[in-house]
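Kindly go through the following sequence and its backbone structure tokens. Advise at your convenience whether the structure tokens fit the sequence:

___
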Amino acid sequence: MNVKKTLFKIWSFYYQGFKEMTLGRILWAIILLKLFVLFFVLRIFFFPDYVATHADEGEEAQFVGEELVERMVAD
């Protein structure tokens, strides 16, 4: 019961903090937008699916394992 009360106090603390933010809310929105662009939009255009183009279907795990070993030995 005490743990539940403590977790509720922590939740309430952060909820009130974010609720009363003005500038911070805008900054968090900008940060989340930038993360979305970095991880989802740029990935589509600049990072092709290397494994799908170089490995046979059903042999993806084997291909990745071999590539990791080859690259480790090459260094």
